[in-house]
């Protein structure tokens, strides 16, 4: 096998990435245009490039909506990449951060900070600690199998259930105002985003992408058996540790911005594998699909029943749950990658 066969993109993948990029751009423009105040698409573009003469449009776009859309794009891309990495390491399409409990643990730790349990660490930092803790526990309980096999998934499901129960207990023991402050962390919402958390997410996502570029060939070899991957020059242990670390980092940072937005990490990689050529890990396509999915879901949550807003986590759950059932019930006839 040629050395570059596992790294060079093919024409189908390039076309798929281009189409997904256009979808992201369209979703962003439409999301910036729609809301309580409707703004023409042309005016949105002029506001973004700084040539609009309408001060109201400039204020609504640049001050109110743009930061929310950027937060959605970044968190969606981060969750999708985390899911793609986790699925690759476990060689299982169901092994996403949400399903194995990382989201719930990150949420529990963040809520612990919000409701005042004596922990004086910022919710975003606590979310990252929770994600790392859940992964370490799942990895330890899986034993020799590591991230591979159903034992890792079952361990994660148990950890996620415990973390969810702990979150509900904490919310039931605090004043109603504190519980309301923590509510966005429990359902997933871009309405309670923190500017500092978004900046940290952007930096973490950029750094993670650089690392993934460096290990993409090794990740692609994980689709083969361990002996074949080793014969191709892959250092399996190092690749799995780095990949798992990136998945935890991206999940924790994303949850620190939007809370536990379910099933993005499952849907986006699945869509990416569908449109890209099999045989490679579709990291770019997954990130673009995740960004588009998050922006579109948030747009639907803001506009379907306006002025009532539905948190983005509820929208993704409604859309993604039937698809999850379809994956579970459908016989799989293709490889993970």
TrEMBL record:
Q: How does it sit in the membrane?
A: Multi-pass membrane protein
User: Which keywords describe this protein according to UniProt?
Assistant: Cell membrane, Membrane, Transmembrane, Transmembrane helix, Transport
Q: Where are the transmembrane segments?
A: 66-86, 98-121, 127-145, 152-176, 196-220, 241-268, 280-300, 312-329
- Asked if the Swiss-Prot or TrEMBL record annotates the protein with the keyword Transmembrane helix, the reply is yes
Q: Keyword Cell membrane, does the record have it? A: yes
**Compartmental location:** Cell membrane
Superkingdom per UniProt: Bacteria
**InterPro entries documented for this protein:** ABC_BtuC-like, ABC_transptr_permease_BtuC
Kindly give the Pfam families that the UniProt entry links to this protein: FecCD
Q: Which family does it belong to?
A: Belongs to the binding-protein-dependent transport system permease family. FecCD subfamily.
Protein's name in the database: FecCD family ABC transporter permease
Organism equals Marinobacter shengliensis
């Amino acid at each position: 096998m040629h050395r570059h066969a596992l790294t060079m993109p093919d024409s189908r993948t390039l076309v798929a990435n281009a189409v997904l990029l256009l979808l992201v751009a369209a979703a962003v423009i439409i999301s910036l245009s729609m809301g309580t105040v409707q703004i023409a698409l042309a005016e949105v573009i002029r506001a973004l490039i700084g040539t609009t003469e309408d001060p109201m449009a400039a204020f609504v776009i640049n001050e109110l909506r743009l930061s929310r859309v950027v937060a959605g794009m970044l968190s969606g891309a981060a969750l999708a990449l985390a899911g793609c990495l986790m699925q690759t390491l476990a060689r299982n399409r169901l092994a996403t951060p949400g399903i194995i409990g990382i989201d719930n643990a990150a949420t529990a730790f963040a809520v612990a900070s919000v409701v005042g349990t004596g922990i004086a660490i910022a919710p975003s930092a606590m979310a990252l600690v929770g994600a790392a803790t859940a992964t370490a526990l799942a990895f330890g309980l899986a034993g020799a199998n590591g991230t591979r096999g159903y034992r890792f998934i079952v361990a994660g499901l148990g950890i996620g259930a415990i973390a969810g129960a702990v979150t509900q207990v904490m919310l039931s023991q605090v004043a109603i105002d504190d519980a309301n402050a923590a509510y966005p962390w429990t359902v997933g919402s871009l309405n309670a985003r923190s500017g500092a958390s978004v900046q940290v997410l952007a930096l973490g996502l950029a750094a993670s992408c650089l690392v993934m570029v460096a290990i993409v060939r090794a990740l692609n070899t994980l689709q083969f058996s361990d002996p074949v991957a080793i014969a191709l020059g892959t250092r399996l242990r190092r690749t799995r540790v780095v990949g798992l670390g990136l998945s935890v980092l991206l999940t924790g940072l994303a949850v620190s911005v939007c809370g536990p937005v379910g099933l993005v990490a499952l849907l986006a990689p699945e869509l990416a594998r569908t449109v890209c050529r099999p045989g490679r890990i579709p990291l770019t396509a997954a990130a673009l699909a995740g960004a588009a999915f998050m922006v579109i879901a948030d747009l639907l949550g803001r506009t379907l029943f306006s002025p009532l807003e539905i948190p983005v986590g509820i929208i993704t759950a409604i859309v993604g749950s039937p698809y999850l059932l379809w994956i579970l019930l459908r016989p799989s006839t293709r490889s993970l990658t």
